[in-house]
Amino acid sequence: MTTRSLALSTDLYELTMAAGYFVNDIRATATFELFVRDLPPDRGYLLVAGLEQALAYLETLHFTDEDIAYLRALPAFANVPLAFFDHLATLHFSGEIWAIPEGTPAFTNEPLLRVTAPILEAQLVETALLATINFQTLIASKAARVVSAAAGRGVIEFGSRRAHGTEAAMYAARAAYIGGCEGTSNVEAGLRFGIPTVGTIAHSWVMSFEDELDAFRCYLAVFPGATTLLIDTYDTVEAAKKIVAAGLQPQGVRLDSGDLAALSRAVRRVLDDGGLRDTRIFVSGDLDEWRITELLAAGAPIDAFGVGTRLSTSADQPALGGVYKLVELAMDGTVRGTIKTSPGKATLPGRKQVWRRSNVDGCCCEDVIATYDEPGPPDAEPLLRCVMRQGGRVDPPTSLQDVRDRARSLTARLPASLRRIDHVGTYRVRISERLASKQRELVARCQGR
Fold this sequence. Notes:
By secondary structure, the protein is of the alpha/beta class. 39% of the residues lie in helices and 19% in strands.
């Protein structure tokens, strides 16, 4: 595939506003914050993901000659002076980024990412940052629920063929790994990110043989060490009996249809009676956290799950409503906070920090959204960290394994009620008095205009 420039991975109005800033000589330094107003249904928390790709995008942001030629030909830019396009030809992101690290649980209205840069640059990157952070955070949060439902059993991400394109499939696999999945069927994600890749066989393999048992034998001959045989093409229980009678010793068998609870019990009996107690039962087929919970509650002897469509598309909530809002402007030595007062969409002014408080047992008990420069509570830790200055990373990228480990460790510190798939509790997030006072002051000023 041809490597493409990402500069045009944006909405048209980002570019027309950029031209407007340029032509009107607006040279302010702007701060935007990316946050989520509401948690999706049934979610007790979000698991932040996508920061690595967001930073890589910012580091490499540039406009090619082809990009600029295309923009100059658009009717929207007919009256824009050539100097603007000359500016785009040399543009690179030069700003500062503060962010909550990947793998950290987060909640509503907390800045996941804070961008401070010349306003033209900060405006241009909105669409790409939202697309990147929203999608991976959505999938990582869904994966954490699925893994929690599996109660210690392995979960493999299987959703590439139902994802919204090949790029979405690859990043869904990455986010799912952060959320706790043990591996993925997506080979490109294995190459790019070092995620363990897992596969079984398809029904087409079995159907291409006259005899089902020959299909099993031939596959085991090529892959003798770690084969999981798909046994539901015809008769699931009879297939298990054939495996036992033939003396085959697959690592696992996979069930992909039918009454998975009843079939897994029947297959387990066949395997155990045939001396294949170490052969694992792996199930797939339109699974999600709710279905997995039902299967385990029914006593299904399942060792691992393959979860595809409902995970990689977050089928019950296929989009995360993250937003990117201007919160501060600095120009000519003056810094002023900015707010929206729209009903249901009001914002908080100024750069912020989020402080997380924990109780004596190390369990998280409260988050405080504060101004960026005020001290936090004495028993709290700041969540936002500086990850980029002057367009360059502050630290080398964190390994994906470390991100996954962080997610597991920090999620375990959340109240148990938030980690249940039918969570019954809410997490306290409050605004500091200083920040609340600034908001009241700006609201009063806006009302007086």
